[in-house]
Amino acid sequence: MDLNQERTWVISIHVTDLFVDKTLRVNGDLHVGGVMFKLVESLAVPADWSDHALWWPEKCLWLNKSRVTLNQYGVHADAKLHFTPMHKTMRIQLPDLQLIDLKIDFSVNVFNAVLQLCKEMGVRHPEELSLLRPKTVSKDKKAVQAPIATTINRNSRASSSSNSSLNKGMTPASPLTPSHRTPLHVTSPVSTMSRTSMTPQTPGTPGSWVNGMSPQALTRSLSFDENLYSQLVHSPKLASKEALLYLPKHKNLTEKAVVNGWWLDSNRSLMEQAVQETDLLHLKFKYFAFCDLNPKYDLVRINQLYEQAKWSLISEEIDCTDEEMLMFAALQLQAEYQAQVPIHDEVDSSRNAEDHDDIDAALNDLQVSLEGSTLHNAGDITSVPELQEYIKHFKPKRYTMKGAKKYYALLRDTHIYLYKSQEETKHKSLHQINLRDCEIQPDVNLSGNKFIIRLFIPGPEGISEEWLRCENEEQYARWMAACKLGSKGHTMADSSYNAEVRNIKQFLSLQKPSSTPTSSGERVAPRRPVQPVTVPEDSILPANYMSARCLKKNKTKLVQKILEAHNNVSDMPLIEAKLNYIKAWQALPEYGLTYFLVKFRNSKKEELVGIGYNRLIRVNPKTSEVTKTYRFSTMSSWSVHWENREVIVDFEEEKLAIKPLSADCKIFHEFLGGYIYLSMRSQDKNETLNEDMFYKLTSGTCA
């Protein structure tokens, strides 16, 4: 035997498309591209193998760098490799609970797979979304998957490049209309919403499409397929009774924390995380920081976000008051009826209105730049606006048997000073509240004339709670806006103060029962009003619009209450109704918090940590009370201690070592880094996605 023969060995490769095993004699210096070339030659099967790559199941690793040698990958004679397609068909559940079948690249990381998926759907800012494993075990311990009405088939690649086992148990039927909503299981014959033939795109550098495609081109990418585009923009109506069977049910914050352990790692591929092509994954908005929701380009994105918000409220993932629930029901009802307007009419209307809005905004900016902001005193542009008026103050934990006392309150900078009367403002205050880093929560009941601002104030001994009770909604809007800014370290001189006051007033106006439609000028982001919609009472099933808790509390005249609330929004166009729904959802106290069950270093008890777009909070899992708030603006660094599975977060006030229990520490770290990345984005429509920066902030490989 010669020397070259001694340096070679036999490697076993399973060809998944052909269900055959091949053996090749190779040496360690042979590069991966050479191995695939020898394999294809030995197969002698005329086919397009360009989408195939080598997969090492034992190491859970793609050998997709064709110039790297077997020695560099650590492949030896005992290794068993698979020669398999990189693009495989996946079933994805969208935020609106529809299912979509399409090809996804299993060899790239999840972040790039989501980029490709969002490109197919025409969704901008794909960094806001990610993939989530579904809950697959029901109460009777049987595996279940969501029976959703419509399956959209977007496969465009030839069947020769996919596994032959792909479509087992899946029998395509004739196209389904939105009115035919039958339960759908992956293991049973399905009704497929087929799409017209589409020319396959040549794969390029992962994510490169973002830099080369304008928002206009992205919006038009699906416009030639009217049927598919319509279903992504106007989701088929789905009964909540059916949907709730497959949505996660959370009895408490600890159960919410468990669900957040199901997110996939954005920096690893689907195959590396044991995802198979027969699996079902959920595509959802992961980060609650949305950039530039623009009806010109984002009809699909706005609808999917609206649908995720809707189901989060109906399933009680996020709680709200009864009056707020009626407002959401009214907006949902209006959106459903306005969805009957043809798509192109809605698009043209929203685009024309948006053009007028852009002009108005530009003129307003010019006026402010020439005349100065109305928030400053005309005589002294250096003065900071203040609030001075009587208001009621209450400490619920300390004076539980006493009512609120009226004080003369002075809000200056980020502090509130309380005095017995206006004349005593020149003296020392009776009580002082530092708003910086406070948690601000509304407690409003319009029918009971209740306008309370709940302040959760951090201190050396923990969180103390204090209330401010306002006399009316005008006073409430002023103080709530100022308190929100103060909690972020901003004063009333901030340019967003007036807009925040208007938003609060508009949010309250939508909750008022009304017998006549509200004029469009009172609403958030007003657009061209439409002919008011008249809704028959017998067409409303309250269970499709409200959470189970609200249904139990309001058993009588619920349809009438929904219709009264609908009068406020009955002349809203579709896009405006959805945007108002999203904006009202964002105003809820529980909005945007992702919970994890954790242990802190040197502590034996379990706690909850909530991560929001601008802060991290500690929560008592038994009482659900916030014990401390940390603002990202005070965070200097964060990193992962992989041996201890701890995330180290360094704030100005203290350094935290957090060990997640309900999720892998990588997922926890990814939320921190993801929100930091999103906070660095600008409103520039031409800004490109910086993938390298996203990886640096979320991978856990650098501090």
Summarize the structure in words.
Helix content is 29%, strand content 22%. It is built from 19 helices and 25 strands. Helix 10 packs across helix 17 (574-586), helix 11 (322-338) packs antiparallel against helix 17 (574-586) and helix 13 crosses helix 14. The model is unreliable at 137-150, 154-224, 365-380 and 517-527 (pLDDT under 50).
Portion of residues within helices: 25-40%
SS-based structural class? Answer: alpha+beta
Strand order of the largest sheet: 15-14-13-12-18-17-16
Average pLDDT, rounded to a whole number, is 79
Approximate shape: globular
Characterize the quaternary organization of these chains. Answer: single chain
Number of strands: 25
- The end-to-end span amounts to 54 Å
- Total helices: the number is 19
Describe the largest sheet.
7 strands, antiparallel
The unreliable regions are: 137-150, 154-224, 365-380, 517-527
Gyration radius over CA: 28 Å
Please state roughly what percent of the residues sit in beta strands, choosing from under 5%, 5-15%, 15-25%, 25-35%, 35-45% or over 45%: 15-25%
Quick structural gist:
With 703 residues, the protein is of the alpha+beta class. The chain contains 19 helices and 25 strands. The strands form four sheets. Strands 15-14-13-12-18-17-16 form a seven-stranded antiparallel beta sheet, with helices on one face. Strands 22-21-20-19-25-24-23 form a seven-stranded antiparallel beta sheet. Strands 8-11-6-7-9-10 form a six-stranded mixed beta sheet, covered by helices on one side.
